[in-house]
Write a structure and sequence with these properties.
Layout: H1 3-14, H2 24-37, E1 43-49, E2 55-60, H3 63-75, H4 79-86, E3 90-92, H5 105-111, E4 116-124, E5 127-136, H6 144-163, H7 171-199, H8 203-216, H9 221-229, H10 235-244
Antiparallel strand pairs: 1-2, 1-5, 3-4, 4-5
C-alpha cells in the first residue's frame, strides 16, 4: 500500500466517530499507529485533558511510550505538557541539548533510547484538548511535511473525539442531519439572492460578499444568511462592509 493510500485510509478511520466499532480509545489508538506508520515516529503516546484540565494517557504504541508519558506526568515537565499548555507544536530535535528546559525528562528520554521528540496539539476550534507525543530514536527529528501530516491527523481525531457519543446513531438521525444541511443551503441561497438583487451582482459575486462579511465578523456563513433572511441584517450593510474590506491576498 502506498503512503497516499495509507493516509487516505487513516483519515477515513479517524473521521468516523459514529461507526459501531469506534470509541475514544479506538480513535486514539488509530491516531498513534498512524503517526508511526505514516509520519515516521518510532513510538507515540496520546494524552487528553480531563475535566479538571490535567492530562491523562489515552493510547500508546508500546511500553517505551507509556513510560515516557507517565514520567512526564509525574515530573510535570516535557514536550507533551508544554505542547498542551501552550497550544502549539513543540519540537525537540536534540534531547541532549534540552536538559535546561526539561532537567528530568530530557535525560530520561535519552536513557530510553530517544534522541528527539515532537509533540503536536489535539485541538478543536482553537481549544487544545490534548497532545500527541512522537518519539524518535535518532536526533534530528521528523521532516516538516511529516509533522504537518501528524498535525492533520491529530486535528481530524480531535474533532471525532469531541463529537463521539455512546449512543448509536440511528438512520433517522443521519437523515435529519442531511435535511438540516439542505435547509442551510437553501437559506444561504436565499440570502445570496437578496444581496444580488440589491447590489446588482451575480449569484457567485453575492455569495462571495456574504462569505466575506461572515469572515470579517468572525461569524458563520449560515448565521449571517439567517440574519439577512430574518431582516436583522441589511443586504446594503453586507455590500458596504465588503466594499470597505481590504483586498484579499493571493
Amino acid at each position: 500500500m502506498s503512503r497516499e493510500q495509507q493516509l487516505a485510509e487513516a483519515v477515513v478511520g479517524l473521521a468516523d466517530p459514529f461507526a459501531d466499532d469506534v470509541d475514544p480509545v479506538v480513535l486514539a489508538d488509530r491516531l498513534a499507529r498512524a503517526c508511526v506508520d505514516i509520519a515516521g515516529a518510532d513510538a507515540v503516546g496520546v494524552m487528553v485533558a480531563s475535566a479538571r484540565g490535567d492530562l491523562r494517557t489515552l493510547a500508546v504504541t508500546d511500553e517505551r511510550a507509556a513510560f515516557m508519558e507517565l514520567f512526564q506526568l509525574q515530573t510535570d515537565e516535557g514536550p507533551c505538557l508544554d505542547c498542551y499548555r501552550e497550544g502549539r507544536r513543540v519540537d525537540a530535535r536534540d534531547m541532549s541539548a534540552c536538559s535546561d528546559r526539561w532537567p528530568q525528562v530530557a535525560p530520561f528520554a535519552l536513557r530510553s533510547g530517544f534522541g528527539s521528540v515532537h509533540a503536536v496539539p489535539l485541538r478543536v476550534h482553537r481549544q487544545t484538548v490534548g497532545a500527541v507525543n512522537m518519539l524518535i530514536r535518532k536526533p534530528g527529528g521528523l521532516p516538516p511535511l511529516d509533522l504537518e501530516l501528524a498535525q492533520t491527523l491529530a486535528d481530524v481525531t480531535a474533532v471525532s473525539l469531541v463529537t463521539w457519543s455512546a449512543d448509536r446513531v440511528r438512520p433517522a438521525d443521519v437523515s435529519g442531519r442531511v435535511q438540516a444541511a439542505l435547509a442551510a443551503k437553501a437559506t444561504v441561497d436565499m440570502a445570496s439572492g437578496m444581496i444580488a438583487e440589491v447590489g446588482g451582482l451575480s449569484l457567485p459575486e453575492a455569495r462571495a460578499a456574504l462569505r466575506a462579511h461572515a469572515g470579517g465578523h468572525r461569524g458563520r456563513l449560515l448565521d449571517t444568511a439567517q440574519a439577512l433572511v430574518r431582516r436583522t441584517l441589511s443586504p446594503r450593510d453586507v455590500l458596504t462592509a465588503d466594499a470597505d474590506a481590504p483586498p484579499a491576498r493571493d
